[in-house]
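new request in #modeling-help
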Amino acid sequence: MALKVALLGCGVVGSQVVRLLNEQSRELAERIGTPLEIGGIAVRRLDRARGTGVDPDLLTTDAMGLVTRDDIDLVVEVIGGIEPARSLILAAIQKGKSVVTANKALLAEDGATIHAAAREAGVDVYYEASVAGAIPLLRPLRDSLAGDRVNRVLGIVNGTTNYILDRMDSLGAGFTESLEEAQALGYAEADPTADVEGFDAAAKAAILARLAFHTPVTAADVHREGITEVSAADIASAKAMGCVVKLLAICQRSDDGSSIGVRVHPVMLPREHPLASVKGAYNAVFVEAESAGQLMFYGAGAGGVPTASAVLGDLVAVARNRLARTFVADGRADAKLPVHPMGETITSYHVALDVADRPGVLAGVAKVFAANGVSIKHVRQEGRGDDAQLVLVSHTAPDAALARTVEQLRNHEDVRAVASVMRVETFDNER
Amino acid sequence: MALKVALLGCGVVGSQVVRLLNEQSRELAERIGTPLEIGGIAVRRLDRARGTGVDPDLLTTDAMGLVTRDDIDLVVEVIGGIEPARSLILAAIQKGKSVVTANKALLAEDGATIHAAAREAGVDVYYEASVAGAIPLLRPLRDSLAGDRVNRVLGIVNGTTNYILDRMDSLGAGFTESLEEAQALGYAEADPTADVEGFDAAAKAAILARLAFHTPVTAADVHREGITEVSAADIASAKAMGCVVKLLAICQRSDDGSSIGVRVHPVMLPREHPLASVKGAYNAVFVEAESAGQLMFYGAGAGGVPTASAVLGDLVAVARNRLARTFVADGRADAKLPVHPMGETITSYHVALDVADRPGVLAGVAKVFAANGVSIKHVRQEGRGDDAQLVLVSHTAPDAALARTVEQLRNHEDVRAVASVMRVETFDNER
C-alpha cells in the first residue's frame, strides 16, 4: 500500500520535489519499503505554468482540504512564511500526518508550538532543508551528537552574503557593487534585505541553537547585524591580519555553561580556519563538541534541486518511521538555558583608528581600553604622519565593554576617525 | 526499565565509552527515554589497569558468555579485527541484541554476513565510528541522501598519512623523516604499514562504496597504493601546478552508471578544492550527489574520545529503535553494480620527465602518448640543458593506457628518467 504525500507549494523547490519523486519512485520505494504517491499539490493559482511532470489533476487551491484529507499520510510544506504555513502544518499534525518542511521562518518564530503539537499527536516533523539546504546537518546535530555536548556552532548559513563578501575579498570591490553583481547573477534578490541585514541567518541561528543546546530559542533572541556596513577598508584590514570577513551565525555556550549567546554579525576569521575557505554561495557549519571535537559540514545552501534533495531524505525517514509506527520526538528544549544579551557575550574586537602620528597617542588610546577593563592583545601602527593608522586587537571581554570602548574612541581627541571596527573570532587555546 | 549494554573491549575507545556513559547518564536517559546501564565489559586480561570509572565487578574474560546473556539488550564492539569480533557480533545478533561497532576491518571484509544476519534477526547494526571517527558521515550518506544519487565520494580517511603528506608539503620534508616525526608524536604506529600502505583507507573505502552505491564491496575489491613512494619531488611538482598531494579513497560511478571503481592512492588535488585545506591528522569526506551537489564532512578521524562520541551517538539511535520496536535494515546492496578493475578506471596523470634539452624530444614523447590513445592536456618545459624537465598532464583516459604510456616512457631513448608520476583528480566541468 502506497503512502500518500500532500505537497504544499509547487515553486522552485516544490517542482523539483515532484520531479525527484517521479524519477526516483522505484529507488524510493525500495528504501522505504513501500511506494510514495503524490496525493495532491496545493498551489495559489491553478493557471500558472508548472514544470513538466506535474500532473494538473493533482493541483488544488484548497490547501486545508488537502492536508486534512483522510488518505494523506505525509505532508511536505515548501510554501514558506508564517501563515498559512503554520495553520496548515498544525492541522495536518492534528490529523495524524507526519510533516516535512523547509520553513526556517516558521520554525524560528514558533517551532515550539509545532514540535509540541507533533509530540502530542505522535507524528514526525522533519526540517533538514530549513537550514543550509542540502547539507545533512540538523539530523547529525540531533542524532549523531546525541551522546555529546556541543559548546559552539559557527555557521556560514546565507549564500548571498557569503558570495558578496567573497567578491569583496577577492576583487577588493565595495559592498554596493558586489551586491549589484550578485543580483545580476541571481545570487541576491531584488529586495536583498532578508539576506544582507542578516534576518535569514538569524532564523537559521535560532534553529541551530535550539538543536545544539536543547533550549528554546526564537529569532527574536538572536542579536543581528548584517553586512551593509562592511567596507572595503574592513576587508583590507582583515587581510592585513591574515583574516577574511564572513557573516557568521554563532551559537555559543557561556564559559560556565549557565547560559547561551546567539548572534549573527560579520566576523574576522583566520584564513587557515576551515570556514575561511568556504567560497561563493556555499554554506558550511562548524561545530565544536566536547567529545567529537571540531566538525564541519559543507555544501550548497540553497537552490531548488539541493533543497529538494534534503526534503526527499526527510521524506524517506518519516515514511519509514510511519511504517514502523514510530516517530522522533524533536524540539527537545528541556535544558532551558537562558539566552544572555549581546552585551554580556564574550567577544574580541579589531579596531583600526586614524590618528595623528605623534608621541603619546598610543598611551591615550590604551587608557581608554584600560578604563573599560579591556586588555589589548596586539597593536601595530601603519603609515606615518597624517596617514598614520593604529590597528588594535583586544583580548576577549564582554561585548558591552568593547562597544563602549569604541564609542569613547570615536570622541577621543587623538583619534581622527574610527576606520574599521569588527569582531574577531578566536579558536582553541587562543582565547 | 534500563537497557543493558555489553561492552566488548576496554582500551583507548572502550574506556572513553565507559566514561561518557557514566558522565552523561542523565542526558542519555532523557534522549533515549530510558537509562542505559553497563551490564558487563569483556576484556582479554583482568589484571590490567583500567581508567577510573571502570567498575572491576563488571569485567569478564568470557566475551561470548556476556554477549549472549539474556539481560543484555545492546552490544558495543570496540575490540577490532576479524576474529573473535565476528563470532561475538553474530552470536549477539542471533540472540536478538542490537550492535554498535567501530570495526572497519570486519565490515569491509564480511559486512554482508553481518548485515544479512541483522536483517534476519530484526536488529540494528550501527557503525558510524568505523569510518572517519567522530564525523557524522555514514548515517547522512545512508539516511539524508536516501532520496538522492551519489556519483563520487572522495575521502581523506586516514589521519596518519594526511599528517605525513601535510608535513612534506609545508616543510618540504621527505617521506621517511615525516614518518619518523609522526611516530615520535604518536600520529603513526611503530609498524605503520596499515596506514602508509593504504590498507586502513581501503577498508574504509569499501564501506563508503557500499553505502554510496548500494553495491556489495569488500576490501579486496579496492585498488590500493600507499604513500611510501611519494617523494619530495612529487610534492614540489604538485606545488608548481597549484596542487597538493593527498591520499584519497575514491569511490566513483562510471560515466554510463553501469559499474563502479573503488581505489586508494595518492592524488594531486587543486589547492582551492575544499579537501586540499584539510590539515594535519584531520579527516574529511567529499561527496558529489546528483541533487544535493557537493557536500563535505570534516572532523577528527581518530582518537579515543571522538570515536567514543560516535559510538554514543549510535548507541542512542539503536536504543531508541529498540524502545520503538523497530530497526533499520542496513547493508542494502541490491544495486549489485560490478566493480571494474583499476585499468578500466578513467583517470588523468601528471608525469614529469628528465629529458635532454634538444629539438624533437617533445615530439617523441607526444608520440608515445598518442600511440596509447592518450591526449595531452598541457605540457611545460622547465630548466635547460641537462636539467631540462618536461612536465605533462594528460586528459582523462583508462588507467591501463596511462600506465602503459609511463612504462614506455621509462624505456624511451629521449627520457633520462621519470621524475614524478601521479594521478590528478579533476572536478566539475574540467574533465
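bot summary: Chain A touches chain B through 60 residues (CB under 8 Å).
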